[in-house]
Amino acid sequence: MQDKIMRKFFLGFIQIHILHHAGQEPIYGVWMLEELKRHGYELSPGTLYPILHNMAASKLLDMEEKLVDGKIRKYYRTTVFGSEVLLEARKRAAELFREMKEA
What we know:
The protein is of the alpha+beta class. The protein has four helices and two strands. It has one domain (about 1-100): Arc Repressor Mutant, subunit A (Orthogonal Bundle), CATH 1.10.10. It has helices at about 1-25, 30-40, 45-55, 80-100; strands spanning about 60-70, 70-80. A hairpin with a 2-residue loop joins strand 1 (about 60-70) and strand 2. The chain starts with a helix and ends with a helix.
């Protein structure tokens, strides 16, 4: 039960990480799994890939397929809308952190 609550709670943070990194350069799933792991998030491909697909369906990310070593790899990049959402998330996170620091 606690794992399910924590996973749901941190889903927003994971999406913000994705928007941030995909705004800097195109990302792909395996790289993003490693990057999230570096920040303490343990996700399986079966969890990450639906997140990426949903973010693309929501127009937060653009997806481009490229042939890499004989395999199709999907690269994701933040859209203009995704950048706007990320900017708003940064503002709200900064406000929350200021408030938590004052407490």
